[in-house]
Amino acid sequence: KKEYRVVAIPGDGIGPEITKVGIEVINKAVEKYDTKINWVEMDAGGCAIDKFGEPLPAKTLEECKKSDAVFLGAVGGWKWDTLPGNKRPEKALLGLRQGLDLFCNLRPAKVFEELKDASPLKNSIVDKGIDILVVRELTGGIYFGEKGRKGEGEDLVGYDVMQYSKKEVKRIAKVAFEAAMKRNKKLTSVEKANVLEVSRVWREAILEIAPEYPEVELNHMYVDNAAMQLVRAPEQFDVIVTGNMFGDILSDEASIITGSIGMLASASLRDDNFGMYEPIHGSAPDIANQNKANPIAQVLSGAMMLRYSFGMNEAADDIENAVNKVLKEGFRTGDIYSEGKVSLGTKEMGEAILKYL
Ligand code: NAD
Ligand code: IPM
Ligand code: MN
């Protein structure tokens, strides 16, 4: 029997409700392939601030380093919103990404046939097909540049430096080109090279890697235009590669055109098989503890874990197929509900997925 050790970090808000579902689904999916996951539950985020006075206890990071993968729900909430930057729950996430060197964030946005009506876009646009992979750089850019405050009173200035080295850009570019080779061989690099120096270096680095992938059709797009093109004609995109902040923003936008942010999974990776898997959405404090959250993004993040970290492609397919079947049967959580469908809570959606697995 094959065994893996995975750290589960439920976090805050809807995190615990959806990770519970995710873990149940993963356990059932791997069982069939004579595999067992040994889960180690750890605290990070707001709950860790309450218990230990810090968002990312050293013990949590240590446990992650000793494991094969990390399965995270979400962190953050109103309760901790007035804390200073390095004491906030979100710092846990940033600390995990940086501490584990997870420079590459894959965020696939694909429209499920069954959910066409949940998309805010017209059917005529959705019908052309939405299948986008956002490759977001995750350990650099404005998130990790020098930051601080200076001056006082009306002259108080807050600043966050956005910078990228060519090395950092080339590292993420390679992943994006490789991904494009396995997909439709189209890569859009998104930046703001008409204004930002950091983006001009970004573009130069991309152009230096491009000759290694002559089959990939590369184009460059400014981020403002990209935001607009995503709703105007999303079918033009295959793989998008972009920096940390633009990737954060564009992946939320890409999620909603496929129907709901509650559907989008992500993998945060480095060069080996280790990864952290989490939905792209947050802790949704507005619906926490009400059995309303859509657990599908979490469940699909589990499928990504099986695929990328454990090479269990069949088990991952099984999970994705089960989700498809559940949607075909008409089962919906509130965020993807439309008239005539069956409305389910978080727990019940989990049970439905388990049933079809
Ligand atoms: P959010 O993604 O938590 O919520 C945005 C909206 O989407 C809300 O209306 C919410 O109810 C809805 N939503 C999100 N996930 C859903 C799901 N699974 N099912 C149904 N509806 C869902 O973003 P926000 O409100 O801007 O942030 C809330 C908190 O989460 C903040 O503290 C933020 O910093 C944090 N956050 C954490 C992560 C993470 O842990 N990865 C990601 C984003 C935001
Ligand atoms: C995400 C989140 C995080 C980010 C926050 C909570 C730090 O929005 O994972 O998309 O900005 O990366
Ligand atoms: Mn985000």
UniProtKB/TrEMBL annotation:
Identify the residues that bind substrate: 97, 107, 136, 224
Q: What reaction(s) does this enzyme catalyze?
A: (2R,3S)-3-isopropylmalate + NAD(+) = 4-methyl-2-oxopentanoate + CO2 + NADH
Ranges for domain Isopropylmalate dehydrogenase-like: 5-353
Query: At what residues does the UniProt record annotate the site feature described as Important for catalysis?
Result: 143, 192
The entry marks the following residues as binding NAD(+), namely 282-294
Q: Name one GO molecular function term.
A: 3-isopropylmalate dehydrogenase activity
Which terms in the GO cellular component ontology are assigned? cytosol
Q: What class of enzyme is it?
A: oxidoreductase
Its BP terms in the Gene Ontology are:
L-leucine biosynthetic process
Localization: Cytoplasm
Q: How is the cofactor bound?
A: Binds 1 Mg(2+) or Mn(2+) ion per subunit.
Residues bound to Mg(2+) are: 224, 248, 252
The cofactors it requires, by name, are: Mn(2+); Mg(2+)
Q: What is its EC number?
A: 1.1.1.85
Query: Which PANTHER family does the annotation name?
Result: 3-ISOPROPYLMALATE DEHYDROGENASE
Biological role stated in the UniProt entry: Catalyzes the oxidation of 3-carboxy-2-hydroxy-4-methylpentanoate (3-isopropylmalate) to 3-carboxy-4-methyl-2-oxopentanoate. The product decarboxylates to 4-methyl-2 oxopentanoate.
Quaternary structure (record): Homodimer.
Give the protein's recorded name. 3-isopropylmalate dehydrogenase
Q: Which gene encodes it?
A: leuB
